[in-house]
Amino acid sequence: MTSTDSTTTDGGVAPSEIESRVVKKVARRLIPFLILLYFVNYLDRTNIAFAKLTMSADLGMTETMFGLASGLFFVGYLLFEVPSNLALHRFGARLWIARIMLTWGILAAALAFVPNVGSLYFLRILLGIAEAGFFPGVLLYLTFWFPKKYRVRLMGLFLLTLPLSSALGAPLSAAIIQYGDGLFGLAGWRVMYLIEGLPAVILAFVVWFYLTDRPADAKWLTLEERTWLMKSMADEEKELGDAGHQSAGKTLRDPRVIGFGLVYFGITYGLYALSFFLPSIVAGFKQTFNTDFSLVETGLIVAVPYAIGAVAMVLWSRHSDKTGERMWHVAAPTLLGAVSIPIALYLDSPFTVMIAVSLTAVGVLCALPVFWYLPTTFLTGASAAAGIAMINSIGNASGFGAPYITGWLTDVTGNAKAGLWVVGAVMLCAAILVVALAKRSSKPAQI
């Protein structure tokens, strides 16, 4: 890196005045808007967990059928993830993210009108196809705008959407189901799908006019600011050399890409198990502990682990940036999630169960932003588009496996304990694998 950016390492010298100014201006412009987009995105992906509380009876769904409906989203999602991200790299984020949001919003709202389980299955597959490329596309987009040393904390802010969408979305979804029942002549869960799907359609048009594809096009930066940012990002690409610009086909076969994909699989296995089944676990307190919560109360209880996880995620991301350490900032919280989740349902009160679940949420959410720093240490350009999408595809296979296996084991055993032991085992493997990958990396200082 040249003298225009004296801070070339995570723990280096204080940034220059222009560096601080540009990073803050870009962050204020992009991060809040991207958080809003991802909030709507993740809410539409996981609101089936709350719909289940009344939808299952209406459509005659078993736990296994619900797990399949939840997981089928990821069939189309995984098949189209890499092509979609390559399209974003070619056509630009503004056009492609607007297209993604428009199609997913229409399909998310269409779930309000499914007549049977088969139609639900079909629309969930289409929803996954429509949404493919959004998350890895945004991660790729951030690499166009922010130097590496800022990415963990900024990814942490962006990924803060995960707990926020669950903490705020849980009571919101529950309230719509409870108080919207009968609106437009529809059941409450149908009203929820309709209301929560429409914002994505509206935001698609906002994306087209608001986002800027690359720093060179940023008229909202001064010429001096654009020049500094473009030079800084170009210098980082030069540091990676030819290895960072390998072909998409070679990138998809890179053992590091596959390895990090498997790590991400383990982390998100815990995330999706919580997202799709935590409302059911809380609702099950009625039978286990003789409690009686309304839908809105259930939503508020579900929000607690995510609210705690949101605070922990921000603090952990900042700590990782401050120390410059990455490997254990991924492995340690993943291990925490692995240990805490399987014991949750062996505890003897709703309070202690929610403490264990909160620790799991903290573990999963703290691992995610630091994890996504790692692939950007050896990928850039088109190889980053393919590699990030591939890692996300492998990881999000857990979005099919976690709900389906957990639901199937619940039906087979009559309780959720076996499914949660599987969650713990998968997360444990992820914690071990990220340590192994880091120690064998050709650039251990960056890991």
TrEMBL record:
Swiss-Prot/TrEMBL keywords: Membrane, Transmembrane, Transmembrane helix, Transport
Major location (coarse): membrane
Compartment(s): Cell membrane
Major facilitator superfamily (MFS) profile domain segment(s): 30-442
Keyword Disulfide bond: no
Cited CDD domains: MFS_ExuT_GudP_like
SUPFAM superfamilies: MFS general substrate transporter
Recorded topology in the membrane: Multi-pass membrane protein
Top-level taxon of origin: Bacteria
Molecular function via GO: transmembrane transporter activity
Keyword Ion transport: no
Transmembrane segments: 26-44, 64-83, 95-115, 121-142, 154-179, 191-211, 257-278, 298-316, 328-347, 353-374, 386-406, 418-438
Record's GO cellular component terms: plasma membrane
Protein name: Putative tartrate transporter
Naturally occurring in which organism (per UniProt): Rhodococcus erythropolis
UniProt lineage: Bacteria, Bacillati, Actinomycetota, Actinomycetes, Mycobacteriales
